[in-house]
């Protein structure tokens, strides 16, 4: 199974955007900007920010293993992994899309570097 990332975006589903977060490190610690209104394609008209939540999942536990989490209408999600790793699966159900039927898998997290 092939994972897509910032370096490997072949066969990316139409309208999916991968955006690198800048990690600022100094002797005091780390600062990462997670959302800015100046980021084109991430925030703007039609991409207004509505909700943010933080979730902790214990190691070895998978969420939604018994079914897909499906959004019947257009939805914009932004993922940021603070600690650990996360696998996100996106399937294109849009019949009018040039990438209809395509599955993308993304491995996100600390191991992907800054």
UniProtKB/TrEMBL annotation:
GO biological process: polysaccharide biosynthetic process
A GO-annotated cellular component: cytosol
Protein name: dTDP-4-dehydrorhamnose 3,5-epimerase
One matching Pfam family: dTDP_sugar_isom
Origin: domain of life: Bacteria
MF terms (GO), sorted A to Z: dTDP-4-dehydrorhamnose 3,5-epimerase activity
């Amino acid at each position: 199974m092939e994972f897509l990332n910032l370096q490997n975006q072949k066969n990316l589903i139409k309208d999916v955007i991968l955006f690198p977060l800048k990690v600022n490190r100094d002797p005091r610690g780390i600062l990462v900007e997670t959302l800015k209104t100046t980021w084109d394609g991430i925030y703007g008209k039609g991409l207004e920010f509505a909700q943010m939540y933080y979730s902790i999942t214990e190691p070895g536990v998978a969420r939604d293993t018994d079914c897909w989490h499906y959004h019947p209408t257009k939805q914009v999600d932004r993922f940021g992994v603070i600690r650990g790793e996360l696998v996100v699966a996106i399937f294109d159900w849009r019949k009018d899309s040039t990438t209809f039927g395509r599955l993308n898998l993304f491995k996100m997290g600390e191991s992907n570097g800054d």
